[in-house]
Design a protein that fits this description.
This protein has 3 helices and 2 strands. The chain is mainly α. The C terminus is likely disordered.
Amino acid sequence: MNVCVQPALIVQFVSGLQITDYFLWAVQRLYEKADDRYVEYLHASIHYVHDIDDISENRTGTRYTKKRPLTKAALQNRIDIIGNKLLPLVGKLSALV
C-alpha cells in the first residue's frame, strides 16, 4: 500500500476552488434568479464582468467594472443579438425539469 500525503498544497488548492465556486455561484444566481444579495457581499472583490450575451450597448457585449457594478438594476435592459430582451430564468427552471 502506497500513501502520499500533501496537506498544505491540497488545502490551499481546494480553498481557492471553493472561493472561485462561490463567486461564480453568486453571479449565476444574479443572472438566473435576479437575486443580488450574494453579489452585493462580493462587490468590493469583483473587478470586471464581461456579459457577452448583452449587446444593448456594444456589439461585443456589456462590461461591468468597479465604477459600474453588476447589479440587478443593471441587468434590467439586457438585449441579445437579435433584439430580444434577455430576462432572468425565474420560474422557467421548473418547466425545464
